[in-house]
Every structure is written in C-alpha cells, then in structure tokens.
Amino acid sequence: MSDVLAVAEHRQGELRDVSFELVTVGRQLAADQGGELHLAVIGGDVDAFADELNLDGVSVIHTVDAGEEFNHDIYTQVTEQLFEEIEPSTLLLPNSVNGLDYAPAIASRLDVPLVTDAVDIARDGTTEVTREMYGSKVETTVAVDDDTVAVSIRPAEWEATDADGDADVVAFDADIDESAVKSTVTGFEEVAGGDVDISEAEFLVSIGRGIEEEDNLPLIEELVEATDATLSSSRPIVDNGWLPKNRQVGQSGKVVTPDVYLAIGISGAVQHVAGMKGSDTIVAINTDPNAPIMDLADYAIVDDLFDVVPELIDALE
Amino acid sequence: MKILVTVKEVAEAEDDFDIDGLDIDDRYLEYDLNEWDEYAIEEAVQIKEDGEDVEVVSVTIGPERAEETIRMALAKGVDRAIRVWDDDVAATDVLDPATKADVLAAVVEQEEPDLVFTGVQAGDDSFGATGVALAETIGFEWGAVVNALDLDAEEGVANVHRELEGGIEELTEIQLPSVLTIQTGINEPRYASLRGIRQAQSKPLDVQTLSDLGLDAGVLESPLQRTEMYEPESEGEAVVFEGSSEDTAGELADLLQDVGVVEG
C-alpha cells in the first residue's frame, strides 16, 4: 500500500505533456513512501506510448489495448481494475478536461477521497495537497485522513520527466463491460480558424473582463489599429460573444508566443496563463496590483485602463 | 421531462482582504450565483422553452442567504427550487464533492429527473468534481465540460461537444438519463426581467433538511480537512511604471518602440 498509480493522457496519437509531469510527481511520491511508480496507458498505440513513457523512476508500465481515444466509461473501468490489482496508496490523474470527466467517477466508485487541481503534494504519513481557491487569490492545504487518495494534478505545474528509465512493460488484459459503456466519442472538431491566427502574431493586444462592456471595444480597436497589433482576449470576452472563438488565448483557446503580450484588464486566471506565459515580454494594465497576471508581467501599470489606453494611443500617434 | 439544475452561491473575494484562520474574513467576501451555473440554468430553461412539458427544478445546498441566488434562478425561468440546509450542514467546514454528491443524490431520488445539469466548477473552491461524482453515485451517464448540446429525447441521447484543450472539441453521444457539467459560453444567459423577478417571489422554494431527505449527519463525514490558508508569495518581478496615466502610457509607448513592435 505504498505504491503510486498514475494514468497517462494522450490525444489523436500523441501523449499530452501532463503525462510526463505525472511521472515527476509520481516518482517523488513513490520515493517518499518507499514504493513503486506504476503507469497506465489506456488506448491508442499503447506500445509506442510505453516506449516514450519508459522514464527514470517508473517501475512498471501497464498497457491496456482499449480503443483509440479517451472514453470515460472505459477509462473508469480499466483504472478501477488496475487500482484493485496494484492496491496503490495514491492514484494520480491529470486535472485536464478529460481528467475532470473521469477522476470523480473513479474516486466515487472506489470510495477513495479525491482532491483536484493540486499544485503541490506532500506525503508524510498523511497526504497534504496544496490547491488554490477564490480565483487563485489564496492557497490552501487540504489534509486527507485516509490511507488511500486520488489526486488530480494541475497541468504545467511540474517539470516534465525526460530521463530514460528501465520500467517493465506489461500488457493488462482489462475486462470491459460493454453494456456499461454509455457514451461514444464520434469525432473531433477544431474551433473555426477564421482569417486571423493569433498564434502567429508578434504583438498581441489582449483584453479581459476589465473592459466591462462591448461598447468599450472600439477604444481597444483604435489602439490595435494605431500599433498594427493583433487583437486577442481572455475567455469571458469570447463567452460574451464580443470576439470570435479564434481570438481566445488560454488552455481551451490558442497558445501564443508573441514578442509582446499587452494584457489589458486581464486578471490572469490559470486557464488564461496556460496560453500566454511563453510570451517574450508581458505587459499588464490592471487596477489590482495583486492580480495573478502581475506575477507574470515584466512590466506593469497599476491604473484604470480607460485612463491609460487613450493616453497610450496619443503617445503613439 | 424533468431537468434538475444544481446551483451554488459562491463567495468572491475583494482585491484586498484578510485571512481569518482557515478562510478569508467574511467582511471581504461577496456572494453571488456561480458563473458556470448561470449557463446551466439558461441551457435548461431554453430546453423548456423549445419543448413541451419540461419542468426545470433547481437545487442548492446553502444557508438562508442563498435564497437570493435561488430567486435569481427562479426569475430566469426555473419552475421551482429546493434548498438543502440544517444545523449539521451549517457546522461542516468542508463540503467535499463526494459529500455534496451524496446529498444531491437523495434529491435526485426524490425528484427522479431525466437530466441533471451542473456548472463545470464553482468559482470559489474550484473542485470541478461534483457533477461527475453525482452521476456515478446515482448511476447516470455523464459528460463533463459540455459547450454545445443537442438533445434527442426520443432517442434518449444527448449529443454534446466537450471543450478540450487547445481549441479542439470532442463530439460525443451520451445516453440518457445523464448528468452534464456545463461550460461557460454554451449559450448567452439572460438577465432576469422585472416580470421574472416578480414571478419568482411566488414560485415554490422548498427547504429540506438532511432528515427530510432520509439522510443523517453521518453523510457529512469527510476525510478532507482544510489545514491552512495563506496568500501565495508574489513571484512578480515586474517593473511597475509609476506616475500619472500620461506618464505611464508614455513609458509604455517608449518600451513598445524599444522592443520594436511599434515604429518609433
């Protein structure tokens, strides 16, 4: 009961980065507990995935030949069976969209407590998980009074492990109850590209909730025109229908890496940061000096955007 | 058809706040209807308006104060509401997703809905797990992070889009009865009209205790306990431009020219 079981994630033939981050977390926890790290890879080209996941600190990789893509009914059944065979103390899953779609079901089925969206985990007798609340304004520690625990980890929070390992690769013959598979993935769609590709832009002027209403959009468009920049946004602007989906920066939108990212009225929710933290120079204009975007910014103006942006347009013309 | 929408009153912290023990001091918290739940309510109400004989019921676990947010749901077209609360729930520090799922499961048993909508997550504790945990508890099928829904009640199938990372959506057929966790952007939540707000005052709002639901306080026992809360240390090393708006804008203009993204 001191082993760790982590379930890798892949999509459309490629392992997702979080799979390699799971190895980093899992091998540390296993080492702390004197146990082994077991990895599971379910569906797709499992042998090729196992080769890629044969990394330092991994003891056993369980390959499960079960369909091409993620299906939560199958993942739930397979993970439950692996858990019962390995009897790990910790089950590690990604806090990705697909993680959100099956981690609570597994935890519930196994009657194991679940802590989601971990940004740190310590295990010293009991498990203590660090997570955020109130839109990243505070961190909390959650202690788990149970011998076993399921934890979903926030993607991109840990370094990926890339050093080679010598894990045993074992095919796991899962017993799938097809009558319990009540969802069918029928395909994938890419969000419409439109005529602008924000991921190619060198200078992005990006807006968030701080612009308050659609009527304020022309002010920003004036800045965009004056600077020959490209306009992008955080999620709420797209949710409100003020800009099309192809302008959204973030976890569920585009990942951008411009020379300059000018974040106007964007607080910096973790899902947004996932899409823009690779920008060369980040500038934030925000009234709140404690907004999470300030932690990321290279340059900041703590002021009302409606005062600063007109002055900026003047200064540039 | 009956659609049950779980809603939550969430706390939002002001920009400046103090922590008192294991939570932000209540003086710095403002309460509102969870953003994700607004989209879940709208989706249910639109189905009611499109179809025949659909009842939309909302349920929340919350104190009397939460009736304000429930009335908001009623004003937006929900037919009736249930609020679960008693002294034992009030005395509980952490209502984790498994506990909430157990309580909500008792409501599902009473109401026997065909569909359950929840928001993807709550804006305050962001566990993002109650909907799927509930589905597993009640034996419904489910879909998480749904950003488009085409319901085929005759065939007993919900055709959904699930919003994955990186601008990709998954198309999935989900058998009914099911729980769908609703993502923001799936629709455009309406504002409550004055007429709706007036009507909401006379719609049924039923308060239930755990014992009304056939549960005892044992259901609240949780292995999760919050042990610390603190403000994360700022890692920011930003150069902050100081001065009037004219001054700071001038410095930013110089910077943009120096970096070379605008012409000098």
Automatic annotation (TrEMBL), chain A:
Belongs to the ETF alpha-subunit/FixB family. Pfam families: ETF, ETF_alpha. It comes from Halocatena salina. CDD domains: ETF_alpha. Signal peptide: none annotated. InterPro entries: DHS-like_NAD/FAD-binding_dom, ETF_a/b_N, ETF_a/FixB, ETF_alpha_N, ETF_asu_C, Rossmann-like_a/b/a_fold. One of its GO terms (molecular function) is flavin adenine dinucleotide binding. GO terms for biological process: fatty acid beta-oxidation using acyl-CoA dehydrogenase. Residues 4-190 form the Electron transfer flavoprotein alpha/beta-subunit N-terminal domain. This is Electron transfer flavoprotein subunit alpha/FixB family protein.
From TrEMBL, chain B:
Keywords: Electron transport, Transport. Gene3D superfamilies: HUPs. The keyword Electron transport applies. It comes from the Archaea. InterPro entries: ETF_a/b_N (IPR014730), ETF_b (IPR012255), ETF_beta_N (IPR033948), Rossmann-like_a/b/a_fold (IPR014729). The keyword Transmembrane helix does not apply. Pfam families: ETF. One of its GO terms (molecular function) is electron transfer activity. Residues 21-217 form the Electron transfer flavoprotein alpha/beta-subunit N-terminal domain. Belongs to the ETF beta-subunit/FixA family. This is Electron transfer flavoprotein subunit beta/FixA family protein. It comes from Halocatena salina. The lineage of its organism: Archaea, Methanobacteriati, Methanobacteriota, Stenosarchaea group, Halobacteria.
